[in-house]
Amino acid sequence: MSLAVVEGIHLAGLVDEFESILTTQDDAPDPGLTRLTPDPYPEDSDASREFSSATHDDLLDRRRADAVLVRAGLAPFLTTAAEDLAEDDALAPRDVEIPVLEIDAWLRTLTALRLVIATRLDITSDDDDHDLEDPRFGIYDWLGFRLDGLIALADAADERPA
Amino acid sequence: MSTPIVTPEVDETVDLQAAPLEPWQVVVWNDPVNLMSYVVRVFRTYFGYSTEHATTLMLSVHHDGHAIVATGPRETMEVHAQAMHDYGLWATVRKAPQ
After folding, report:
1. Is the model's pLDDT at B5 over the cut of 60?
2. Are B89 and B42 in contact (CB under 8 A)?
3. Is there a contact between A82 and A90 (Cβ–Cβ < 8 Å)?
């Protein structure tokens, strides 16, 4: 996958933020986190509690492990702070090498970032309009664009003989 | 062709009704965030469904609001639901309607 230098820097920042949400132990969890751990038994609170206590922490551990891989893959982008980059350098494309075994971690993490942002933007139905004044919609759409591109690359890689 | 050397003793009194194997289902629900291409990929790679079947399931999620993506024993369905949650899909587990 190819990203502009400034994109890589911003994505690394988002992944950092995401990791800190995952790590924060709080009685009132981030609503974005709630979306990442849906209730599998909405009509049976006992079964729900049982499932959640058995799986919740493991699920967040796997999310953290995914995020760590993605963050490590973005390390080459962080040699210069975004504000110190000349415009040409900031927009220069740079390849990110993603090993086949790490593709799912990338897809899950980009998806999780979009889910968390969507929760904050209150995107709850297919008909919700984008408020073009709100820069977070720009980030949300940009992540969607990059995710879609990565899915196409991953699907194409599956079709190549090993 | 051969005939069995011993005839197994069958306990005719076992009551299969006592522990019915009721099928459970994993249901994936529509959400406005996940990309169609992503949902198809998850169904294809995780469940091993063909692209065609995965696409049909994705379209039912999108148009009907939900789709049954797997049916089987409860424990297995819970494992699948967890995997769907890992992928960020909104999945629930329920007893198959009789």
Report:
1. yes
2. yes
3. yes
Which phi-psi region, left, alpha or beta, contains residue A3 (left: φ > 0; alpha: ψ -120 to 50)? beta
Residue B7 belongs to a domain? no
| Cβ atoms A19, A33 nearer than 8 A | no
Is residue B32 in a domain? Answer: yes
Chain B positions touching A36 (Cβ under 8 A) are 85, 88
Give the distance from residue A38's alpha carbon to the nearest chain B alpha carbon, in angstroms: 6
Range of the domain at B65: 21-95
User: Residues of B at the A interface (Cβ-Cβ below 8 Å)?
Assistant: 30, 32-35, 37-38, 41, 45, 78, 81-82, 85-88, 90-94
What number is the average pLDDT over the span B71-90? 96
ipTM of model: 0.89
- Cα(A91)–Cα(A154) distance, integer angstroms: 24
A106: its two tokens: 């990338």
pLDDT digits (tens, 9 = 90+) for A72-119: 999 988 887 777 777 777 788 888 889 989 999 999 999 999 999 999
Q: Can you give the CATH number for the domain in which B28 is found?
A: 3.30.1390.10
Residues of B in Cβ contact (< 8 Å) with A39: 92
**Do the Cβ atoms of A38 and B91 come within 8 Å?**
yes
Domain boundaries, chain A: 2-159
**Domain tally for chain B?**
1
pLDDT digits (tens, 9 = 90+) for A33-85: 888 999 999 999 999 999 988 888 899 999 999 999 999 999 988 887 777 77
Task: Note whether residue B66 is domain-resident.
Answer: yes
Q: Is residue B2 part of a domain?
A: no
Q: How confident is the model at residue B4 (pLDDT cuts 50, 70, 90)?
A: low
| Contact (CB<8Å) B92/A39 | yes
